[in-house]
User: What shape does this take?
Amino acid sequence: MDKLKFMIDTLLKENPKFNKDNIVDYEKNPKKLLRALMNVREPGEISQEFLEVQDEFLKNEIKAMGITDVNDLKPVGSEGVCSVTNCDSIYLWKGDIVTIKADCIVNAANKKMLGCRLPLHYCIDNAIHTFAGVQLRNECYEIMKKQGYDEPTGKAKITKGYNLPSKFIIHTVGPIIYSSVKEEDMALLKSSYYESLKLAEENKLESIVFCSISTGVFNFPKELAAKIAIATVDNFLSSSKYVKKVIFNLYREEDLKIYENIIKVGINE
Assistant: This one.
């Protein structure tokens, strides 16, 4: 608790407009308050002492949640009927992406590439930035500062994983659906998957874990998104030299069933 209090007090001193009560009740939810303060923190230097305490805290939190190693998973080809070409290289996994141990995970980012800035928001961008630690936003900031413009939809960037079990994080901006899905939207979603796989290949990474890009608050229809994801991954694996394991992370049971059905009956059904 002393270390938790130290982190909270450090972040509160950095940002005087916040206090212990105007985000989350400190006494009842100190861990939530810490997360909220990390969510709203601007990129910038912080003491080595803070980083050491934070890193130990986050690693322990993730360990307590339970870490899954991709090497312990079974490919879709071992589960029965499989309609894709690379049945032994594609995996389905239902769980929390911040707890999986792989070469890299894929984050559904926004165009600023600085993480979700809404305190305690439920999106994957928020979770990844929270459990990776404040170093992640700092690295993203330096990347975007050098780039000089917002990240285009369908492109991707790679960073370290910091306190996550996975070594790297690939950040991609998927398309936002405002009404109906257009051909351009489908092409951009395909590009998000392809550019992420390309980065993994360029960095000689063997395993990559995808979340369901654009299907949350970006409103891309889940079944169509799954078909695009599976087709793009299956095609890429057929000529990949380094990427050997692609894991689709499905957080909800309904999403898992969509992927299971497509894998079984085929993308064109």
